[in-house]
Design goal:
The protein has about 190 residues and is mainly alpha-helical. It is built from 5 helices and no strands. Helices cover about 50% and strands about 0% of the residues.
Length: about 190
């Protein structure tokens, strides 16, 4: 019991000491008037304005000559029959001001497809075989058994096959080959083993 009394006295002494220390901090403020007059803000430094001259660049000289048109001609097909001579229309009277420059009309004509390989038919056969293999793989796949992600891959492979066929029709063989490869890869991943 003596220990409890001693502890309670120590606790009371500690509380009193903390109360006195807290009270002394609250009252420890500087008492006095602020010293000296208020300071005036300094004047801003003088601004230096540098005049800027805007120099206009001289206009580019007009092109002296128009670039020569590049005409790419497709080799004639041997199997296609040549048409008869076209029937000439009677010449219409036109003003000389309405005549157009022949170089301009050549540039406005659509360019024929650019063929990059020597053996086009072989490349077409290869692309068509890849497309057929992808179609066979997709036909073996049960669409209803696929989850959402694999259904999206199935639909993408179908679209790749359609786009490759369209690219073959316009003789864009490089794009058709890339699409057929992508379709074949996706279809092979979806096909049951």
């Amino acid at each position: 019991m003596d220990d409890n009394r001693l502890m309670s006295r120590l606790a009371c002494a500690l509380v009193v000491a903390l109360a006195l220390a807290g009270a002394s901090c609250v009252s420890a403020q500087a008492k006095g008037e602020p010293g000296g007059p208020a300071l005036a803000p300094p004047a801003p430094p003088p601004h230096t304005i540098i005049p800027v001259e805007i120099v206009e660049e001289p206009a580019a000289p007009p092109a002296a000559t128009a670039p020569t048109p590049v005409i790419v001609r497709q080799p004639p097909r041997t199997a296609a029959p040549k048409p008869e001579k076209p029937v000439e229309k009677p010449a219409e009277k036109t003003d000389p001001a309405e005549k157009t420059d022949p170089a301009v009309t050549t540039l406005q004509a659509p360019a024929p497809p650019l063929l990059t390989t020597a053996n086009v038919t072989e490349m077409e056969k290869t692309i068509r075989s890849r497309m057929a293999r992808a179609s066979r793989d997709l036909d073996r796949t049960d669409y209803r058994a696929l989850n959402t992600e694999r259904r999206a891959q199935y639909d993408t492979a179908k679209r790749f096959i359609q786009q490759a066929d369209e690219a073959l029709r316009v003789k864009n063989l490089v794009f058709a080959e890339q699409l057929a490869d992508k379709a074949a890869t996706l279809a092979a991943a979806l096909a049951p083993k």
